[in-house]
Amino acid sequence: MPKADRDNRELVKTIRKFCRRHGIAESTFGRHSVNDGKIVGRITNGGWIEAGTERRVREFMDRADRGEIVLYGRPRRKKSRSNAETMSELISSETSVRTAGSFAFHEQRQRFHIFANTTNESWAVADRIAPELTAIAPSGEGIRILYAPMDNGIILTRTLRALHAAFPDTPILVVMKGRGLEDLRNTMGRLVDRMAEHPLSAFILTNMYVREAVELRKISDDNPDELVWRKVALEGNRSYDFQVQVAKLYGDLANEWLIHPGSHGQPVYAKPSIISIYRKDRAGDLAGILPDDGECLRFDYALLNHPYLHSHTMRFRIEHMLGPVFDRLATGGRMTVIQSQGDDPAHEIVRKVWPGQPLPRTSRYEIIRDFGKALRSDGRSFGFTGLTDARSLFRFDMHTLPILRERNLGIQSLSAAFNNAVYFGQVKEELAQAAIREGSRYLQITEDVLRKHGGMWFVNESMSVTRRSVH
After folding, report:
1. Distance from C-alpha of 39 to C-alpha of 44, rounded to nearest angstrom
2. What is the per-residue pLDDT across 211-235, written as a single tens digit (0 to 9) for each?
């Protein structure tokens, strides 16, 4: 028998075993592996298979067997018990837990993930606030920080490295407000390493609104459910020990961290949830900084990173975001707010794609003015920084773009750049989808702007307010 025939027979046997193991049809296998539902039949009948196609087939099987690809097969008459158990394990594994029924929210978050992975904003923000954090004078109990929103945890992790290096023996509590299960999973997956390096770290993660997160109690009447608070003392002293224990929480948390789109575009939680995690072997050392139910916290530092949309009213910003956080600052505590500034290639793309659409923007000067009036009316003592561009503005870049020469940019790079302009410019999703359906005009505008500036960058502005006294 020729070697090619023997190789084909071995490949067919391997494929059929794979299909039985995963409970899928051979045609389904062909479509998923190489987009050809008849490939298995052709190989079986002696058809020739290219080396590259065979490699794709085998890589597909290897990835599925490692659990990187989840296949949902139909129940078969002779489906074995072991196969059923295998499918159950694949579906219920840590990385397969999903927040069902929140497609609108996930569509919005897809743009964020592309933006976060193709720009260096997280690094720029973390490096900017790290000196502010390391300048904190700890109280006798330790350091308390508020961070909102938690996003994917990169800014927080990078910042905590600096804080932990500066205060290796100081108890540190970080309260984080998240927007959904994916934020929670990404952040908790990174925090376990911080807990291994800095055992006196404790973290509280919640999906509630900012005005509720600062008090760790439910205030809004949007949802009738009672607050669910999990206090998890992790055993062991290694990152892997903590990772295994944290992973077991996601199944229950998926239902609590369900997200619905709010009337103003903001995500709304389905069930109020709080998770506090800390090391069991350091519970005694952390007792003074971990809050009891109903305890009023005072924060030494608070970061609000793009906490609202530019389309939100000033009243919403002050009453639902800035005011509640300022009220919970300790004496000398500092709150830093970061938002997009608008004078960059990203906003230029938005203005050219939608020339007739208004581009809402509220500068930091307007916020400082109106928020300062609200604070003075209550007789509170405070101080602002960030009035000058030199202290406020900072740039970050889309760092995955190729070097711009005479050659045309690829459509994937242009699509990613357009996505980032849409996300950073806070363009409504229906406008973005309409521009895509109209043809390639949006891509040409994107390329023209990138070539004009030699790349793509973004400008943020920051402002800070310090509480000078507590009444």
Report:
1. 9
2. 999 999 988 877 677 899 999 999 9
Spatial separation of the C-alpha atoms in residues 117 and 400, rounded to whole Å:
9
Tokens of 177: 């407000």
Q: Which stretch of DSSP H or E encloses residue 242?
A: helix 239-247
Nearest to 178 by CA among 152, 159, 158, 155: 152
Residues 462, 328 contacting (CB under 8 angstroms): no
Residue 92: predicted pLDDT: 43
Phi-psi region of 265 (alpha: psi -120 to 50; beta: other; left: phi over 0): left
Backbone torsions φ then ψ of 116, nearest 5 degrees: -65, -35
Q: What angle do CA 206, 208, 211 make, to 5 degrees?
A: 115
**Ramachandran class of 117: left when φ > 0, alpha when ψ lies in -120 to 50, beta otherwise:** alpha
Q: What are phi and psi of 230, to 5 degrees?
A: -105, 130
111 close to 419: Cβ distance less than 8 angstroms: yes
Long-range contacts of 126-129 (CB under 8 A, 24+ apart): 126/154, 126/155, 126/156, 126/158, 126/159, 126/162, 127/158, 128/394, 128/462, 129/159, 129/303, 129/336
Place of tokens 């581009």: 359
* Separation of alpha carbons 114 and 109, rounded Å: 9
Contact yes or no for 462/386 (Cβ under 8 A): yes
pTM for this predicted structure: 0.76
- What tokens were used for 436? 């895509």
Q: Look-up: residue for tokens 């039985």?
A: 20
Sign of CA dihedral 297, 173, 289, 254: positive
Q: By the 8 A CB rule, do 210 and 323 touch?
A: no
What pLDDT sits at residue 7?
Answer: 74
Tens digits of per-residue pLDDT, 84-141?
444 444 444 454 444 444 444 456 778 988 999 999 999 999 999 999 999 998 888 8
Give the C-alpha separation, 248 to 231, whole Å. 14
Burial 137-160 (b: 16+ CB within 10 A, else e): eebeebbbbbbbbbbbbbbbbbbb
Question: What is the CB neighbour count within 10 angstroms for residue 177?
Answer: 23
